[in-house]
Amino acid sequence: MKGNKQEGKKIRILTVICVFFALFLVWVDRTWPLLTMDQLVHHIKAGFSGLEGTPISIFLSAIPLCVLPTVLLGAAHKALIGKIGKKRVRSIVRGVLAVASLAAFLGMALYMGGKLKIVSFFKYRLTDSGFVEYYYTDPADVKLTFPKKKRNLIYIFLESMETTFAGTQNGGAFEDNLIPELTQLAKEGEDFSGSDDKLNGAYMMPYTSWTMAGIFAQTAGLPLNIPIKENAMSTQEHFFESITTLGDILEEQGYNQVFLCGSDANFGGRALYFREHGGYVLDDLMMAREEGRVPEDYYVWWGYEDEKLFEYAKENLLELAEKGEPFNFAMLTADTHFEHGYKCRLCGDEYDEQYSNVYRCSSRQVAAFIEWIKQQSFYENTTVVLMGDHLTMDGKYISKMVPDDFEQKIYTAFLNAAVTPEDPTMARRYSSFDSLPTTLAAMGVEIEGNKLGLGTNLFSTEATLNELFTLSKYEKLLYEKSKFLDELGEIDLTLVPGQQ
Fold this sequence. Notes:
Number of helices: 19
Structural class: alpha/beta
Strand order of the largest sheet: 5-4-6-2-7-8-3-9
Distance between the termini: 49 Å
CATH superfamily of the largest domain: Alkaline Phosphatase, subunit A
């Protein structure tokens, strides 16, 4: 009798475990319908370590779908099956339930495995084809000719900003255009859509799908493929010390450089990166507190809201302009970070979805800031770059609002560029990597060969890697293990808690 009870207990535990993981996979699919394996790895690392990208509250939302039904099933399994008098019937029912739950789990696992291409992901992670090394153009080896009068640069990293949020008539996926002002700015400037009147943008490639990786891709022309947690670069003594980035290039040319963000700049290694590559002055939440711009205990969203960020940006720009020297001012918005975004006092209630209202509000704020810049005396000799750091991580919001086959792209706009495309009718296929040489070209810099990092100057007619390879092929090649990147990164695992 004791043996039968133990056997029944094991079968019940197996059933409950299979049901839990089957429901968990259903929850993952519902929460992030457009998930890639690259993003999944990031979400898991970020979520359980409390880092940016996946607040622990996201995982707590799995409780109603996964935990509660599993607990109820376990209790019901024990109570109801225990009432079956005949031993043989009881065993058959237990077996059927166990097989059914196991089949459900395996079915969901196979479905998710196929959707995420897990086999291919790990296959390529074990392969080193030398792709990055072969196509990488070291900026230190390229002749760069700056104009006699050097142009200023204002580079705005727009949190989670996509062309997706534009109206369908502009190439977006929404019936209403959530970002009409940004849409207009892209059309007034350059987004490399050629003769097409629809918005164009950058593809998000592997290892560029979180903020620090997006910044790295756009300013270094490389994927942040590292053997540690995505936002653990703050633990390192150096951030790819040997590479040459946009900041390094402009520092050598005598530019004054500032990076402004409303959160702690140390997070994700941003402070380390910008200090080491360009000697940027860091104006972040900590500095705002120290200077009394916000109270010492002030903290909303990720630090302080974008409304304040744009005001502090104006102060920074006026101070930089007064020096009479070329400057590079970079800033990072945050209100449009998932989940739902931050609804500030400037936001309206045009839509039922908070995230829609936040994007609508962000578009207005960015446009107002750009309008202010245009009124300043320094604007005539200043190039402005607007670019999303990555696609939104809120797949649930996107899946609810966007068709399954819609091609998401990162919002991109080059304003007041010193050059125009060699072929203005040519619509380009490009990624975040192409921003590095394109930004310099927009500043009037002549680039020998039009290649830097993995990027191509989009104002030229040189082919980008997105134009040389299909998107799927390019992604696979970037997923491959790269000894070259390992050597450039020189990651010290002993400095990362739990990864020694």
